[in-house]
Amino acid sequence: MKRRKITNSQAVCIIILWGLLCYMLLTYSKKIDFDVIFSILASAIIVFVPLYKNMRHRVDEK
After folding, report:
1. What are the pLDDT digits (tens) for 6-40?
2. Which residues of 5-33 are buried (b: 16+ CB within 10 A; e: fewer)?
3. What pTM did the predictor assign?
4. Residues 47, 14: contact at Cβ < 8 Å?
């Protein structure tokens, strides 16, 4: 199955939404502890690794 390519505008929207969710998590949490930091780091890995792979794959094709 062929991989769908992510455009630059889609990548920017994903990054902005992730940043907004992290901002909301940090502002609405009563205290910043290990669980909050871990959830931010885990979500960063889930969001940015596929974006990085997609961008790297796009550069390799050119």
Report:
1. 889 999 999 999 999 999 999 999 999 999 999 99
2. ebeeeeeeeeeeebeeebeeeeeeeeeee
3. 0.83
4. yes
